[in-house]
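Project standup — Tuesday

K.O.: blocked on the structure for the chain from last sprint. Re-posting the sequence here as requested.
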Amino acid sequence: MFKFDDRGLIPAIIQDYANGEVLMLGYMDAEALRRTLDSGQVWFYSRSRQTLWHKGETSGSYLTVKEVTADCDSDTLLVKVEAAGPVCHTGARSCFFQEVKEGPLR
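H.V.: unblocked you, prediction finished:
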């Protein structure tokens, strides 16, 4: 049903269930997706560490799943969550806080 890339991964956009704010982007393999759906908390596959990780396991900022949908091509997931705290590893609520003002915007 889902279209994983050649590395077996699918991007997962994490969005706040209550206000629609985009919190982060992560990647899931089939096992991370299964654990996410089974547990009701978000799991990812870490591309740098090449292992599964339970979001919040070290920070306490767990993501409780409220809804999971796939895009029209089934190659991207939208995971609506309730966040237990800041989502970004920097301590920011969202990973998307750096405004782009320069560069080749076309």
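K.O.: great, moving the ticket to review. The mean pLDDT is 95. The radius of gyration is 14 Å.
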